[in-house]
Automatic annotation (TrEMBL), chains A, B, C, D:
The keyword Transferase applies. This is 3-deoxy-7-phosphoheptulonate synthase. Keywords: Transferase. It comes from the Bacteria. Its EC number is 2.5.1.54. It comes from Candidatus Scybalocola faecigallinarum. Gene3D superfamilies: Aldolase class I, Phospho-2-dehydro-3-deoxyheptonate aldolase, domain 1. Residues 87-323 form the DAHP synthetase I/KDSA domain. GO terms for biological process: aromatic amino acid family biosynthetic process. NCBIfam families: DAHP_synth_Bsub (TIGR01361), PRK08673.1 (NF006421), PRK12595.1 (NF009239). The lineage of its organism: Bacteria, Bacillati, Bacillota, Clostridia, Lachnospirales. Residues 1-67 form the DAHP synthase ferredoxin-like domain. PANTHER family: PHOSPHO-2-DEHYDRO-3-DEOXYHEPTONATE ALDOLASE (PTHR43018).
């Protein structure tokens, strides 16, 4: 951590701060230029709050050198983490496609989609029972009934299931779920992160639509600090000024996250673009950029879907996509 | 709601959609150009999900004409709403300043700040007991103990209190709180919004740092649809590309929100800028733009604050600010 | 184009507007709902300024249905455009890599890079003679001398050359340049666009770092409307809130542009990311997403480069990349 | 400037870099932590290109401590600059309103607006002769003829005139213009900045719609480095995700710019919001935030304006605004 002092900062105040910093067990390297006094703090600064230093009248600015995350940091854990979701491995060379409808609507729908995505080669089944919707008047999911249908579909298709948890109060309902999704709007719902940090269930943590990669890693750190190190990160598009897609898919997040962390990184092109015909090119681009998996919305009848119809693939489109995905992952594995 | 069809959309599909739309009790006005077929849907479209239409193969795009919010909409409620927080009125010409520390640290600190802000003319006391922090290693607030200290400080200073609720599980602890704050990271924590929609307590709803004004109003609608119409909106800065301030304060949100909604709108310049010396000019600008109130962070010793020190005013600075605030609100009331 | 009127707009004003619109040769389809009056304008509205309508007191809002670009629009030109740059074709299945240093520094440097990128299989040589730099104190390029060196390097390596034009005043110096680049900061330098619209030379038009795809196409339209239809579009990263990369590469721009326009689309991963080790994964992702080419910065000694050293590949790295590019383009051509 | 080295950077390379840095006349203060080696460069680093350092394999990152602008920097020029535009002073306590139509349309229009804004108390007349328009098919201004009409209107109303220069080629036509505007899309048109840097005419430099404040100051530095220190900065709204206004007016730019620079700062609420009824509250907010002036679009018949009608005030609305502006500037001068 680097402290840059204001010109003419009174020596007395500087000495006081030095004592406080040394009391934390940190060492200080001082650099005095013609106009500028800099300090480099030496030691473990990951738990120091920059604001504590920035609040001082004598301080011009504070810059962090070390990353504030430890458990998620590749520096301290160089090998790729492989997350095992009920026998399906993700990360460290293991690639999985998670597929299914945005929301579970009825037995026939979820079973039909489940069977078809399994047959096409998906590794996990997704389906929403509790749905975060912008409007209070929109369909909010089937709730407990939806979870029940999802677990039945799991038996029908044989795939592990992933579904979104929206509040700590529902956590008991999710005991048989194989992977719990934390959605984009809850990436910084810290009480929810703490709650799933207590579980053993793998967590699929989606990037907030306006959150930086370091903030995503700090949210992963919340879960890991609680004891649950089975975290998979998911890039799903960020909010920008461009109106032609729902969000802007940030594929550079893949190599950058893989540099910063050992956790697996998957991509959700369906939510990023919000348009059916863009899913395939962006899915292939995600593979080329090094993703460990994909999350794809599939619906047996997208035109009648209760949510996210415009971006859902039909089972036939998904089958075609899976064929290309298999060939592309094989190609890039060899490249 | 306007539907624009794809060129060469098959008539059979169009006729099918017409039946479905009419079954919802809506009328259709058709406009056929040389290349383009448009439909205007007539009737109450506020509860129609645009995706349901956009998902059709025959549909090029869907545009909303009516706003999707009803209870928050000024069109259906032309008079300004006045929210009464334990005797302190906000909105409809009533202006209040909410002041206090970012987080409650101990009895001495909160009482000292409470007394000084009350003496300077603040209308409500703020103080965080449960703190949303980016890092799991940062101070997370005193929790129940913090709430207890806040309620004691309320007795000491005589001001109603405002504090942040982070999860539905804590709602019982907030029974004696006069106004509940929903923070920027929870603006789309829909389960939390539903929970506070069941209460009678006034809700201070902060704009998400990357949310549009219409999304803010939809979140207000969640609370109001649940039965709690005591909602105050708060602009607190949005995320942009500009690095010199923590966020970019969007003061144009004030007149725009006041056009769209009857709810009171206040401004938090402390979180928006993140810098102590910017609070005063931005507070005065907020008044000039028509804000119904301000939220200001004040700390007895900002240099030692456990959070948000860099943006906290000292009691002396706050006293000077309040003098200017009083004069500025009087000036603009007359202008 | 759709006009939505304000409630209670006076009929007299509406009738007046109707006359003006019909005088432009447009037809009007009217739709009257319970609260809302809509008009659909029928005919060629591409040259109508939306502001002319939006400025009316009686108008609530105006929405465009037709795209405002014609010559760049795939609707009116369904086949892919193939641009021929001195024998090197780009677009419609023809893929090219443009490579070279950010700026031309001296004979030895540009010739050395030119020869090595040619040997590795680049199709065109890039090199800056006039450099847009944020700081007036930074190296601004060798100017006329740089152009001379570039044209000599062209003879040495046998590749067509691409270089940036910054102002209409320099256009005469660019007569022997094979493709003229319009940089990101000049995408809306309309006088410059008009100037290159008068030429026959192919134009490489880079997306402005905060411009939408429709704005990019309107800038292409400026050039094409002037008579020069040899335009190649280049995605090079957009400005977002994410600080870990210089810009955020928007690969979804590739399929979206290809839907909207017949012009070729290439990608510059070097400027987008600003980091050497990210160039390869993002170049491969661009190919997977359907790009018609790549623009890659290569320097014989990146550590001593006068600009953009951090993102420049060494000739060895470029050679390895080209091998993968060849295999990836072949793979995706077959997929 | 601070250099952070990679772990395990070879000493030989580090020693080499040390020699190069010392050869530039800079001193180095070294700080060696347990994992991290930092250097603070001491001396005038304003002309060092950070990329030159960041490109090294041994360098992890480079952080700037000193600002890269000198002439625009308040540190080296603590007093407010007062720019005198043909007798009208701006800055250092002098406040001016610049008003007029977006574009000059004909004699009657510009003279009528000129007289009315002068009568209402505007200090300068604006009017566009060369108009940057997104569409090549939109009205592009009257060009030379427009300038002629503007200079005639100047005689009629007695106010100095401001108009936009779009390309170096037109500079000779602007000899009698009192202040030259560089528009938002040309803020980083560096050849144009160099050109106006050679003049004595005051320059109104508008912030690029996606440019940071430091980039704005670097563009001012371009003009000042050329010898023209008569620069006025103008905040006119930035591009964000919020769709309800044309841009987001960043009023926090005013106090922040005034901290960073001695140059005057004015605000253009018309372009920022794009909506007539928002001009007044945002103009008053700009005054409260400390602006040195305002730029307001006024048209004698906004509904017929050839451009920017939706945001143009009528002369009557402008007269009402000017009355409030006078009272507000007087109020804040005393506050």
């Amino acid at each position: 951590m680097i402290i840059i002092f204001k010109e003419n900062a009174p020596e007395k105040e500087i000495n006081l701060l030095e004592k406080e910093i040394r009391a934390l067990g940190l060492d200080i390297h001082k650099s005095k230029g013609q106009d500028t006094l800099l300090w480099g703090l030496v030691g473990d600064t990951s738990k120091i709050n920059m604001d504590w230093l920035a609040a001082r009248q004598i301080v011009e600015s504070v810059k962090r050198v070390q990353e504030p995350y430890k458990k998620a940091n590749r520096k301290f854990h160089p090998q790729d983490t492989v997350v095992d979701v009920a026998g399906k491995k993700i990360g460290g060379g293991h690639f999985q496609v998670i597929a299914g409808p945005c929301s579970i609507e009825n037995t026939q729908q979820i079973n039909s989609v489940a069977l078809s995505v399994a047959q096409s080669g998906a590794g996990l089944l997704r389906g929403g029972a509790f749905k975060p919707r912008t409007s209070p008047y929109a369909f909010q999911g089937l709730h407990d009934e939806g979870l029940k249908l999802l677990l039945e579909a799991k038996k029908v298709c044989g795939l592990p299931v992933v579904t979104e948890l929206m509040t700590p109060e529902h956590v008991d309902l999710f005991q048989d779920v194989d992977m719990i999704q934390i959605g984009t709007r809850n990436m910084q719902n810290f009480e929810l992160l703490k709650e799933v940090g207590k579980l053993k269930t793998p967590i699929l943590l989606k990037r907030g639509m306006a959150n930086t990669l370091d903030e995503l890693l700090m949210s992963a750190e919340y879960i890991m600090a609680g004891g649950n190190e089975n975290v998979i990160l998911c890039e799903r598009g960020i909010r920008t000024f461009e109106p032609s897609t729902r969000n802007t898919l940030d594929l550079s997040a893949i190599p950058m996250l893989k540099k910063k962390t050992h956790l697996p990184v998957i991509v959700d092109p369906s939510h990023a673009c919000g348009i059916r015909w863009m899913v395939e090119p962006m899915a292939l681009a995600a593979i080329a950029a090094g993703a460990d998996g994909l999350m794809i919305e599939v619906h047996n009848d997208p035109e009648k879907a209760l949510c996210d119809g415009p971006q859902s693939l039909t089972p036939e489109m998904f089958n075609t996509l899976m064929d290309k995905v298999r060939r592309a992952t094989a190609f890039f594995r060899e490249l």
